[in-house]
Write a structure and sequence with these properties.
The complex is a heterodimer of chains A (242) and B (239). Chain A is built from nine helices and ten strands. With 242 residues, chain A is α/β, with parallel strands linked by helices. With 239 residues, chain B is mainly alpha-helical.
């Protein structure tokens, strides 16, 4: 489904991504973790064509992102993305936030788009918020709307860029529950997160990144029980303290 | 020294009262027309300045600097005295004789362009205060660049910059007074003419001051209503 082949990206002398390779099959959930500045978010943005890269290639469903003739608009419709700070459109009500892309991009009728939006709001557990503005919702609720907004385009892949990092501890669970359900429904997911509980429960593969490269990868048991690199061990010790 | 003989009635006495009203009407017309043209052009140019395309950014930067950096009075003189001379002779004649009130429209051009460059900067400031991920979020749902600006970034940015836009709107109405220098018969011109006919300068000028006060306070009120109407939770709101 997604094939990342030796991708490198740099700003001047600074290497943001260094020879990153990874294959993600349909229905797989891949969790990316690592210290800040490791290039996790950048990799996520590269996958969606939001950031260019200098070397290597990313192939999504047979479409090459390195090919300049690739229609990024089409490609992005296959992928939904959720951001750390939700990034809902503050001047639109929740319902409009979800329906605008299906209406304007997919040319769906307003009635169909709203029906779909209510189904999605039901799925993320907040149908009663449809007529409010993002500013009236809690962080957890906003992030669930953001997930619904991404799902409204019926993507085949969902990218999550630290979806719970900006949330109060109490709200993390409500967002993770939605993501776990999504994973269990067979969605292909790439999740940048430090929520190791989530990783344990649904991840098919966990990747540890540092300084732009993948330092370690493993299925959940091997990854947590006996990390091969010293750096991974140190990192896991820190985030698994509690 | 003779005592000054106040005669406020000259402000409404025939024919001065109707001169004043004509002047006020021209001021309002000029201000409103220039404001909407400038708002449209300014939004467009401000947007072009932050787009990812180098050429459009270059164009927009040049536009902004050109119209922002020359005094408005000089620009008006340019459009009135110099620009028509550059045109072919027949066009120049048409401009002066074929178009009624050509001086009015010349000021519309000058004042709109000048104001649009200032509005462009406000719009740019608004857009640059929006996080990169907001753009990315819109793009990630499959929006084109154009749709991203049209549905998300511009409506968002305008809400952020309404307070400075209110100031800008007031400035347009105040700047219309410079139109008198190219013989547009607006409020300031008329008040000066009344002074010339009656020698009642204090009354005539005070009258003009009051007129501008009323116009600008009305603008402040209208913009306040606009701000209230566009206010959304979580963004700056009028309290």
């Amino acid at each position: 489904m997604i094939e990342i082949k030796n991708v490198s990206k740099w700003f001047g002398d600074f290497r943001v991504l260094e020879n990153v390779s990874e294959t993600i099959e349909k229905g797989q959930v891949v969790v990316i973790c690592g210290p800040s500045g490791a290039g996790k978010s950048m990799l996520c943005k590269c996958l969606n064509g939001l950031e260019p890269f200098q070397e290597g290639d990313i192939v999504v469903d047979g479409i090459s992102l390195a090919d300049p003739s690739t229609d990024l608009i089409k490609l992005r419709q296959k992928m939904g993305m959720v951001f750390q700070r939700f990034e809902l459109y503050p001047h639109m009500k929740i319902l409009e936030n979800i329906t605008i892309a299906p209406i304007k991009v997919k040319k769906m009728s307003q009635a169909d788009a709203e029906k779909k939006a209510f189904e999605l709001l039901e799925r993320v557990g907040i149908p009663e918020q449809a007529k409010k503005y993002p500013g009236n919702l809690s962080g957890g609720q906003q992030q669930r709307v953001a997930i619904a907004r991404a799902l409204a385009m019926e993507p085949e892949i969902m990218l999550f860029d630290e979806p719970t990092s900006a949330l109060d501890p109490e709200m993390i669970k409500e967002v993770l529950d939605v993501m776990i359900n999504l994973a269990k429904s067979g969605m292909t997911m790439v999740v940048v997160t430090h929520e190791m509980g989530f990783a344990r429960e649904v991840a098919d593969e966990i990747i540890f990144m540092e300084k732009g490269s993948i330092v370690e990868r493993g299925t959940d048991v091997s990854f947590f029980k006996n990390p091969k690199s010293e750096r991974t061990k140190e990192f896991l010790d820190k985030i698994l303290l509690v | 020294m003779l005592a000054y003989d106040f005669k406020w009635s000259i402000l409404w006495a025939d024919p001065y009262g109707s001169w004043m009203l004509e002047g006020i009407w021209v001021t309002i017309k000029l201000g409103v027309i220039c404001w909407f043209i400038a708002l449209f052009l300014g939004t467009l140019i401000g947007t072009l300045r932050v787009t990812p395309w180098k050429l459009s950014r270059l164009f927009a930067t040049g536009y902004t600097e050109l119209f922002r950096d020359i005094p408005l009075l000089v620009q008006l003189f340019f459009w009135y005295f110099a620009a028509p001379r550059i045109l072919p002779h027949s066009w120049e004649m048409y401009l002066y004789r074929g178009i009624p009130n050509s001086e009015f429209w010349i000021v519309v051009v000058g004042l709109s362009l000048y104001t649009s460059s200032r509005i462009a900067e406000h719009i740019r400031a608004g857009m640059q205060s929006i996080s990169d991920d907001q753009y990315n979020a819109a793009l990630s749902t499959g929006f084109t660049q154009f749709q991203t600006y049209r549905y998300v970034i511009i409506p968002y940015a305008i809400r952020l910059v309404i307070p400075p836009l209110t100031t800008e709107c007031l400035t347009v109405f105040k700047n219309t007074s410079l139109a008198m220098t190219v013989a547009v018969l607006e409020t300031t011109f008329m008040s000066q003419q009344i002074e010339a006919y009656t020698f009642h300068g204090i009354e005539a000028t005070t009258g003009a001051c009051v007129v501008y006060m009323i116009i600008t306070l009305t603008v402040v009120m209208i913009m306040g209503l606009v701000e209230k109407r566009l206010a959304v939770p979580g963004l700056i709101t009028r309290r």
